[in-house]
Amino acid sequence: MDDEVWATGPVKYAPRLLGAAFLFVILTSLSCGILLNSATGTGSTSALLAGLSKDPALFRLAILGGMLNSTGIVVLAVLLYAVLKQQNQLVARIALGLWVAEAIFYAIIQLGLLALIPLSAEFVGAGAPAGSYYQTLGDFLYNGIFNQGMTIHMWFYCVGGLLWYYLFFRSNYIPRIIPLFGLLAVALGLGSVVFQLLGYEISILFSLPILPFEIAIGTWLLIKGTRMAIPPDVASASVFKPDAGD
Asked: What are phi and psi of 61, to 5 degrees?
């Protein structure tokens, strides 16, 4: 296209920072999931509380990773807005708000997990009584705040993702097969969330395509950047001119 130039100078780093942010978020998300599974196991609430009281280190590390992930989501959303707002500013603003809401819910989830640590110490200190309010509160914090909170968190992610990846598809900044893959992946994930909210048990496999998509788009943006359509008057500025010898 005649009005397209390869962005150079400071502008070219925004897409690459965006790629790094995608990879950072997916890396912290995976790390948190592995750490939480190792720390909580698959037993009852009583077993969870008893285990946490003995060695909460992995659990605390998972929570720290969750807070880093929440921060990364905000940074990712801001970078997406900076790169895609020219396509449709209103849609980009809505998507930005949805992903900020996602980050807030994810931080609230970490608060619920953090509250399990002192509860576990009290539970063991009280002699691990069966059928006590400790199990009820622990079940609420873990299965209610954490598990159900993750469903709400995924709702905001998927709806915002539909908007972001639509803008990427429209922009032609990257090969359209990548955002098309993203649209299909988050649409499948959103369908899974809707069924969960309606009370159905849905396999995590329905959300699994999001993982390779985020790795793909993050790697592409980090290595290749984007071919950005720059208005002719802006393109004439020195910051967008190709370096000598290009």
From this structure: -65, -40
- Rounded to whole angstroms, the Cα distance separating 161 from 165 reads 6
DSSP assignment, residue 174?
Answer: S
For 232, other C-beta atoms within 10 Å of its C-beta total: 9
pLDDT exceeds 80 at position 139: yes
- What string of H, E and C letters represents the secondary structure of 99-167? HHHHHHHHHHHHHHHHHHHHHHHHHHHCCCCCCCHHHHHHHHHHHHHHHHHHHHHHHHHHHHHHHHHHH
- pLDDT tens digits for range 189-200: 999 999 999 988
Could you tell me which residues are beta bridge partners of residue 4?
Answer: 229
Triad 156, 161, 203: Cα angle to 5° = 70
Helix crossing, 45-54 with 89-125: angle to 10°? 80
pLDDT in tens, 88-110: 999 999 999 999 999 999 999 99
Residue 229: beta bridge partners? Answer: 4
Angle value at C-alpha 20, between 78 and 109, nearest 5 degrees: 60
Structure tokens at 85: 């707002």
Which two tokens mark 210?
């999001």
15 Cβ neighbours under 8 A, 6+ residues apart: 7, 83, 173, 221, 225, 226, 228
CA-CA distance, 223 to 221, in Å (whole number)?
A: 6
Q: What is the pLDDT of residues 143-163, one digit of tens each?
A: 888 888 899 999 999 999 999
The answer to whether 98 and 74 have CB atoms below 8 angstroms apart is no
Q: How many residues does the chain have?
A: 246
**Around 45, how many Cα atoms within 13 Å sit in the side-chain half-sphere?**
20
